[in-house]
Structures are given as structure tokens and as C-alpha cells.
Design brief:
The chain contains four helices and eight strands, in the order ββββαββββααα. It has 209 residues and is of the alpha+beta class.
């Protein structure tokens, strides 16, 4: 039996959905209600493919991970089939784990543009009326240990320490100016008091004379 294929493209990413209509419900012959296979092609990376369970897991992973990034939460996701972690603000490490034995996990790095293209293809898939949606896709909460994984020494030194040092320097300089100003003001007051005392003494001498 000839299977149908739907294709969703976005710049560097191509998603193919392959399957059959549900003839028991008299569906259109071009419809896909029984997904038998899917393929995700990302430029300069190996082909990613699997069954409906893999698709559900991977879509949930990318949607959840993107949600963490948008909400400034821990940029880390881990599941049975896929792990995603932010290497820095521009690159994301993806680890795809096969359900078949003796097959090593596939490691790929993607940038923000490719991540956006992947999400766009999934959005096109969800919006299409020609294919049954993956109902089990949910947005998960980030694992508690993700926060520690996301802390990066380079990010800390490059983005956090410089502003902190600048603020501390500004505080010290301001405090020094305030101290010097107060010291100068105290000296002027003392000089004024001494000057008044001297004038008072001179007046007293003149009165005695």
C-alpha cells in the first residue's frame, strides 16, 4: 500500500511525516492519521528518524527546552530519547539516544537559528489539517539539577564579573569623594572657627587697651 508523505520546510530544517489515512473513518486518501515514520533533516548533520513515540518525545523536548530559554529558566532538558543543554548563549548541545541496542547516541550542536527552524517545522506540523497531531506532547518542568549544569565559568567571568567589578569600583570612588569632601568641609569649619576666635581675641585686646 502506497504511503503518504507530508513535508514541512524552514530554511535549514526539513521535517517529513510518512503514514496512511484511517480508511475505517472514510478519510481522504491524502490524509495521514497513522504515522509510520518521520524524518528530521538538519543541514550539516546526520539524518534523524524514528517512530511516533520518538517524534512525540523529541517534539516535547524541543518545545520544553525553548520554553525554558524564553522564560529564563534552566536551559537544560533530559529524557529517555533526547538531552538538550545550552553550551553558551548561542550554541546548544543535542544528544539523541536510540531505542535500539548497540547503537551509540548521536551528538549534534545547533545554533539559535537552527533551533528556531526546528520549532517552526514542528509548528507547521501541528497546524496542518492533513496529519493527525501528536497528542502526548507536553511542556515539562526543568529538572532541579539543571541549574548547576547551566552555570558556566566562562559566562560568569565574561558577563557577570565585569559589571560587578564596575559597580564596586564606582562605589569605592564615590565613597572616597564623599570622604574627601567631608574632610575638606571639616577643615574649613575648623579654620573658620579659629579665625573667629582670633578676631574675638583681637577685639578683647583692643577693648582692654
Amino acid at each position: 500500500m502506497l504511503q503518504n508523505k507530508l513535508v514541512f520546510n524552514q530554511s535549514s530544517v526539513r521535517l517529513e511525516i510518512i503514514g496512511l489515512p484511517d480508511y475505517s473513518n472514510n478519510e481522504n486518501k491524502n490524509q495521514i492519521s497513522i504515522i509510520s515514520q518521520w524524518k528530521l533533516m538538519i543541514i550539516d548533520t546526520p539524518l534523524i528518524e524514528g517512530n511516533i513515540d520518538h517524534l512525540s518525545s523529541i517534539m516535547g523536548a524541543f518545545y520544553s527546552y525553548s520554553n525554558f530559554l524564553i522564560n529564563n529558566d534552566n536551559a537544560f532538558y533530559e529524557s529517555k530519547f533526547i538531552d538538550i543543554i545550552a553550551e553558551n548563549y548561542f550554541t546548544h548541545k543535542v544528544l539523541l539516544k536510540s531505542s535500539k541496542p548497540n547503537i551509540k547516541p548521536l551528538k549534534i550542536n545547533i545554533g539559535n537559528a537552527v533551533l528556531s527552524d526546528i520549532i517552526n517545522c514542528f509548528d507547521q506540523f501541528n497546524a496542518s489539517i492533513k496529519v493527525r497531531k501528536v497528542n502526548s506532547v507536553v511542556l515539562d518542568n526543568p529538572p532541579k539539577k539543571a541549574f548547576l549544569k547551566f552555570i558556566n565559568k566562562d559566562i560568569t567571568f565574561n558577563y557577570i564579573l565585569p559589571p560587578l567589578i564596575s559597580l564596586c569600583s564606582l562605589f569605592l570612588i564615590s565613597s572616597s569623594f564623599i570622604y574627601l569632601y567631608n574632610l575638606s568641609e571639616d577643615k574649613e569649619k575648623k579654620a573658620l572657627i579659629n579665625s573667629n576666635n582670633t578676631l574675638h581675641s583681637i577685639k578683647s585686646i583692643n577693648t582692654i587697651l
